[in-house]
Amino acid sequence: MLIYIAIYIEKFSNKRVKIPKIYKRKPLKVTLYKNQKEIRLPHIEKVLTVDLAKDKIRAENIQKEIASNYIGGRGIGVKLLFDMLSPNIDPLSDENILIFATGPVTGTIVPLSGRHVVVSKSPLTGTIFDSSAGGFFGRELRRSGFDVVIIKGASEKPVYLEIDDGHVDIKDARDLWGKNVRETTSFLSKDGFKVSCIGKAGEKLILMSSIMSEYTHACGRGGLGAVMGSKKLKAFRVKGSRDINISDEEKMKKYVAESMRLLNASPVASKGLAYYGTPSLVNLINTMRIMPTDNFRKVHFENAYKVSGEYIAENYDIKKKTCYNCFIACKREDKKRGIELPEYETIAMFGPNSMNDDIEKIIQANLICNDYGVDTISAGSTVSCYLELEGGNDIETPLKEIVEGGPLSEGSLRYSKRKGKEGSSMSVKGLEIPGYDPRGVLGLALSYATSNRGACHLRAYMVAPEILGKPKLIDRLSFSGKSGLIQIFQNISAGIHSLVMCQFSSFALSEEEYSNLLSAAVGEKYTSEEFIRMGERIYNLERLFNIREDISYSHDTLPERFFAEDRISKEEFDSVLDEYYVYRGWNKGVPTKEKLDSLGLKKEAKFLVERDS
Amino acid sequence: MWKEIAKFGKKLVDGGYLSSHFGNISVRVGDSITVTRSGSMLDEITEASVVTVDLHKPSSLDLIASSETIVHREIYKRTSALAVIHAHCPFAVVESLLNDGSIEPYDSEGKFFFHEIPIVTGNIGTKELAENVATSLEQHKGCIVKAHGTFAVGKILEEAYVHTTMMEHSSKIKYYCDLTKNK
């Protein structure tokens, strides 16, 4: 079936206008790839490319090969970015590309499927970067007629992108520029639109800026909000009423029922998180003595209870908030004030890691970060770093400096380097470490070090087996067997982020259930191993991207602080890292020719051959 | 590593999942497989009872490795498994003789974790068996070789052990239920 989608361009007007204003629209013919057969792809298929510099919009089907090999979400975003981006460009220049992507199960009856992914080159880390958010935006995007939206170039003046049931407009956002997330979202979400936007932080190109969906759902990490700001793209709003295609509805119902049985039987998913939300981790992490405290100089916080999930439940009138089709509902709101409450990572960074036991101050810090559009982990960790170097316990002053674009806003690594104290930045590849001290969770330590986007707990999600015992409890204080495990979990997570499903589904679901859900969604059989293999392909392609950017294996490490006093033996760490490379089929962090050929990445690896010859 | 293999070898024999000589256990370590030796008793494993062989190709050490090493190797080559247990679980063998294709567990745990347990064919130690088992385990956590026994995979040995015991449990429940229904 030839896809013809009505696309309309709105020429940018130089006149100052009130928003929204109806412009004359010109229809644009859809351009398909050369030799593209007229087929109805059950995969992720409809890609919209918006060139803000040239005021051009194009819609096309994605190549079947890409859809089949990269699933959707993170995978397709990574593939498109790799193919489209020239090496060594400035992430905040108009050459960078921003990709919003959904996956084949986004917005369907699959539980925990309300997420979308944004992929770009990070201005914070210089690496390839995917960041995802929950809520309802992803579902609405698919219902609006598009699965993936690529944003190229930069507008001269502030604009926002609108998709209204297949109709695309670039609209004037000058009246919105200078406004924060709450005000922008409130204005643009009228008439049923779902809104992703940046606050003042993104406008000021602050390197830890987030993209916020529906007020509180953050594509938080990596500074992708600054990329959006550099394009003068204030917001992206969508509305749709189209059905989302499922290839085999009967099978999908069966697999969803099986998945729900497993999720309901999981105490972490159906009880712990459902009762206290993610702050349920505070007391557990502290008891295990892996709570980042005093900028990772300690592992236990005496007053942790005062910032815990239990304390919040006892002292606040709480309302649960959920994403699309999620029974866990891990988000929390203060019913009286109608404000969002912080999640675990935010509490860990602005609380114990900054030696602060005042939950109200953390709540306020969270509100400020969400409104300005700033990643709470990077901001909190940078505040902790500042307090280590400058002294004191006031979190408000450094946070103010961050959101207003002062020197601290460049993140802990650049700040500490300027101070001549690089060792005080608790980061990997420039991305601040989240709320689990790696000295007490050695699999996570290896996972932080080998992550393609920098320190991230979600790349392999070793929190599940090493801390929560899911699917099996493994010894968190031993490196034994971890190198093999990490690469499998990294591959599986890449698959989950490409479906796109919430990471919390992995408390109960395995590659078997994920591959079944994928198969039913797209109508082609994927085995468990094929699902893992796709994750491996994505992980290797990300690695190739980073190598092309001259990010070498020397970046696969941890801050020296963790090796001090032999808390983590550097010798043992290096040995396990080498073992990890063996499992990966990599040589000093670089995928071997055999590995790349086996994953079908020969073409992508051409630059390696040219470089080495 | 042999200590971990010894621990689960003893548990398997003590639990009645196999008799001492029948079955084998392996773990993947980088590009190698550490596997129980042919003729070793699984409840009395020592350091000398295991051998490390190449993951990618047979070597001279295969001579003393378990006769099913060919199957273990094929599983590791084609799946992301890091541990494999082969056991001659009695009820699983009975169910494989009573059914073809696969069995669907009746018990809730079996339903949750397996959905279905495939039954595959092939003679002991053959390439055909290795291919059939590996193909099956590309999608499932465990399978039963007809008239022979179970193969289960895991990311750690404990997981492969759980999958083995669950296959036997599901087979036992199904056998007794069917027996009662057919009275």
CATH level-4 homologous superfamily of chain B: Class II aldolase/adducin N-terminal domain
Q: Give the strand order, joined by hyphens, for the main sheet of chain A.
A: 4-3-8-5-6-7
The helix tally of chain B amounts to 6
Q: What best-fitting shape of chain B do the alpha-carbon axes yield?
A: globular
Rounded Rg of chain A: 23 Å
Q: Estimate percent helicity of chain A.
A: 25-40%
CATH fold annotation of chain B: L-fuculose-1-phosphate Aldolase
Terminal-residue CA separation of chain B: 48 Å
Biggest interface, chains and residue tallies: A-B, 24 and 22 residues
Number of domains of chain A: 3
Tally of helical segments of chain A: 23
How many domains, in number, for the residues of chain B? 1
CATH class (first level) name of the largest domain in chain A: Alpha Beta
> Please, what is the average pLDDT of chain B?
93
The CATH superfamily of the largest domain in chain A is known as Aldehyde ferredoxin oxidoreductase, N-terminal domain
Shape of chain A: globular
CATH topology of the largest domain in chain A: Aldehyde Ferredoxin Oxidoreductase,  A, domain 1
Structure in words:
The complex is a heterodimer of chains A (613) and B (183). By secondary structure, chain A is an alpha+beta fold. Chain A folds into three domains: 7-239, Aldehyde ferredoxin oxidoreductase, N-terminal domain (Aldehyde Ferredoxin Oxidoreductase,  A, domain 1, 4-Layer Sandwich); 275-435, Aldehyde Ferredoxin Oxidoreductase Protein, subunit A, domain 2; 437-613, Aldehyde Ferredoxin Oxidoreductase Protein, subunit A, domain 3. Chain A is globular. Helices cover 38% and strands 14% of the residues of chain A. In chain A, a hairpin with a 2-residue loop joins strand 20 (586-587) and strand 21 (590-591). Chain B is an alpha+beta fold and 183 residues long. Chain B has a single domain (2-181), classed as L-fuculose-1-phosphate Aldolase, CATH 3.40.225. Chain B is built from six helices and eight strands, in the order αβββαβαβαβαββα. Chain B has helices at residues 2-14, 69-78, 90-98, 108-114, 127-137, 157-181, and strands at 23-29, 32-36, 50-54, 83-87, 102-103, 117-120, 142-145, 149-154. In chain B, helix 1 runs parallel beside helix 6 (157-181) and helix 2 packs parallel to helix 5 (127-137). The longest helix of chain B has 25 residues, at 157-181. The model of chain B has no long low-confidence stretch (mean pLDDT 93). Classes of the chains: A alpha+beta (613), B alpha+beta (183). The A-B interface holds A 258, 261-262, 265, 471-472, 474, 481, 483-485, 488, 491, 510, 512, 515, 527-530, 532, 579, 582-583 and B 27-31, 78-80, 82, 111-112, 115, 138-141, 154-156, 158-159, 162.
